Queue: 2 jobs
Job 1
Amino acid sequence: MPRSVNSVASRARRKRLLAMTKGQFGRRKNVWTVAKNSLEKGLQYAYRDRRVKKRNFRNLWIARINAGVRPYGLSYSVFMGGIHKKNISLNRKVLADLAMNNPEAFKAVVDFVKS
């Protein structure tokens, strides 16, 4: 009896993988072995960088807060220490947004921390 191969499922699996590599450059998008390796590596980077993105945004928020409090004679660490002492429950994302887009509200927070 001849060996039975489920070519329908195999082809569907290949099509699904090649669809996921659509838009890549060169042989990465249409050669099975190259596309498979490229996709696996891309998914590894995607998993890793979902975590790295959180670090990058936190660094950005800290830089913006620091730039926002420097004109008032404070450093970032002194300001954040004061925020915690006064029990102000604004996170870094909100503080950075205030520093950039609403300077008068940010000044009110800084004045409250300084008092």
Job 2
Amino acid sequence: MTFILDQNNSIANHFLAELRDAQIQQDSMRFRKNMERLGEVFAYEISKTMGYKEKAVETSLGTARVRVMNELPVLATILRAGLPLHRGLLNYFDRADSAFISAYRKTTKGHQFIIKIEYISAPSLDGKILVIADPMIATGESMVLCCKELLARYEIKELHLVGVIASKLGLDHIEANLPNAKLWIGSLDEELTTKSYIVPGLGDAGDLSFGIKE
């Protein structure tokens, strides 16, 4: 299943537009806030797919029968760019545990790159619903590698992948390698540069959030 947010009209399209706007991007606080807002939108959409049960809640005037989630997901993100998006998800799934993955592109002598995972910090994911957030899904290789590493370690019940902007190539790569995953994408772009940046995309989400790295 693949859900693409901007295929429907909503306030989320306004947040996406501001994230792409090179002038508005100069305000890093607003950039982070828009990432966080989209995380909240995705959390709301993902929550519709989860299991619910009925319970009684005592009000000041009586008893209300309400429906609440059966279980909470574990929220994971790929550092560092994914932190604001993760925060938005955590604002809604506010009692969820979190996992963090450090992964980066390592350039080879032939000017190609490979994905390296430095570490994974996670609670037990056995039998859990896992939501992994990464703002930009370019080639899809980072997401696939991280997911396969986690799937090799744990018996994950359900896998949700969240990306603000994805390339068509990246989306195809994920669908081919993680056929059981549910994908939640803000917007889909067609092109990649020779350095595997999404066009038109929005640039480097980590740098725009936290400053230019060396």
